[in-house]
Amino acid sequence: MIKYLGSKRALLPWILEQIEKCADGERLHVLDLFSGTSRVGYALKAAGHRVTANDWNEYAAVLARCYVQADVGRAAEAETLLQELATLPGRAGYFTETFCEQARFFQPHNGARVDAIRDQIAAWRCDEELEAILLTSLMEAADRVDSTTGVQMAYLKEWAPRSHAELELRMPQLLARPEAGPCQALHGDALAVASTPADLVYLDPPYNQHKYEGNYHVWETLVRWDAPEHYGVACKRVDVRERRSPFNSKPGIAAAMQAVVDALDTRWILVSFSDEGFLGREELEAMLSRRGQVTVHEHAHKRYVGAQIGIHNPAGEKVGTVSHTRNREYLFVTEVTR
Predict the structure, then answer these.
(1) Cβ atoms within 10 A of the Cβ of 335, count?
(2) β-bridge partners, 298
(3) How far is Cα 60 from Cα 206, in angstroms, rounded to an integer?
(4) Ranges assigned E (strand) in the chain
């Protein structure tokens, strides 16, 4: 899966352990309301649970359609199309001009191949699920040859060694349909989806000022393929400025989180949060306790890769020092009684 700020890869065993304790041997319907790369949803599907994954960013919804909604039965058809896409010669277009020449996220030879492949995917007009598999393969291929620290706020001053490699499409590892039933991917506002009935709701919301659509604007453009106007050295989509989430706002996050928690129709609520977020432990406990008994688990964790290597400006130059390299992750488990 793509490099991702806030990825729960390292914390996944810990999260799954707590969810399985809630399940107590049952197969659950789990609603993952802020699905991101769908790493948690994918693991839950692999464990046999039925998952509904949701995210309001289109690239994240595409990842969920691939890794959560699509079953392994789609693999043969997708593999045939990926083999055809792999033979296409590069043809420079918007992606190359914007992200390889005006900005330097990718080498131009790889940008031209992205342009050609993405144009062909659009021309095929596949069904939504099959298209998601192809787009996920392309996103991941581009991610393996990028020249960033893992986020798209900036690119490196010098080309990363991996950027010289050739773009290579690989088949995403799809899963069999779980015993609990077919999984689903949604693309909606969290509050609008929050009332979807589920046995357990997993909440991993944005928790500070870092906006995912700004950190991953290249993937959003790759998926939408809408050639947007852009701004700044990083060539961000102009709608990054216009599209705001209350979860990225210190004054707004408390009311937004409480509204979501109050709207949930579920037996269990599991919230993943960090001590670097706008909400403190006591505040979150108070919110969740309105719905039932809350248990809090803590885990010391190494911060994301950008924090390990230092602070850089949009040109990729180091401009500051790191204050700390570890943080504390929380899991709030609530058994709903009201």
Answers:
(1) 13
(2) 330
(3) 13
(4) 29-32, 50-54, 184-186, 200-203, 230-231, 236-237, 268-274, 292-302, 311-312, 318-320, 326-336
> Which residue has 């180091």 as its token pair?
318
**Mean pLDDT to the nearest integer, 290-315:** 71
Q: pTM value?
A: 0.91
Model confidence pLDDT, tens digit, residues 193-203? 999 999 999 99
Distance from C-alpha of 299 to C-alpha of 295, rounded to nearest angstrom: 14
CA separation for the pair 98, 256 (Å, rounded): 35
* DSSP secondary structure of 249-312: -TTTHHHHHHHHHHH--SSEEEEEEETTSSS-HHHHHHHHHTTEEEEEEEEEEEPPHHHHH-EE
Residues 6+ apart with CB under 8 A from 286: none
Helices 108-124 and 128-143 cross at an angle (nearest 10°) of 180
Length of the chain: 338
pLDDT at 239: 94
**Angle at CA 129, nearest 5°, toward 125 and 130?**
55
